[in-house]
Amino acid sequence: MNIQLLRDKFQMLRLTSRSRLSNLVATSASFYFSKWTRSTYHWGLPVSIAIEPTTSCNLRCPECPSGLRSFSRATGMIDTALFEKVISQLQKKTSYLTFYFQGEPYLHKQFLQMVQYAVSKKIYTATSTNGHYLTPEMAEATVKSGLHRLIISIDGTTQNVYEQYRIGGDLAKVLEGAKNMIAARRKLQSYTPHVIFQFLVVKPNEHQISEVQKLPVK
Ligand code: SF4
Prior knowledge:
Blueprint: H1 3-14, H2 18-37, E1 48-50, H3 80-90, E2 96-98, H4 111-120, E3 124-129, H5 136-145, E4 149-153, H6 159-165, H7 171-187, E5 194-198, H8 209-212
Parallel strand pairs: 1-2, 2-3, 3-4, 4-5
Helix pairs in contact: 4-5, 5-7
């Protein structure tokens, strides 16, 4: 296990509390007891939750309802008051917030303020981005928000391969954004966010798996 990963695990551990641990025991017990009795028992509150800041996206990936513009629900931005209400109701019991599902989180203008709010309640926050909005200013604001984990999708080493899945995307911009992120973390002497580069393997890019590890983003 490398040092960054260890630090990331440590961040998670230091956010645990007695009430979150007892909630974990309660939810696990309801799962096993329901399985054993073949009835439904439900104790505790969610240990982890996923919230989409937005369902909209700047790209058009072919396997994603956001990319295909094919949602059966409305496309929009979460109301920050609703977000804060949910977090304040769960904060004592919930440890982990996945801040994405379908949609590009950085399109929500208050995204980092929401991260900051969850972090102030000592909840571990993780998000994923297509990397098109990581300007130097946004990268610094991300570090300052206290976000714990950031996944950046880099799905090709050349523009023509990258854009076959990330339709409408600009690989140079993503690589620039990734560099900005690392530079901001260094400048602010922060261990967070823990940055993970994601390479989603599809037929057009599978021959670039070894090349992507050599990309100069650090
Ligand atoms: S970048 Fe993510 S949210 Fe946007 S279309 Fe692609 S998979 Fe969907």
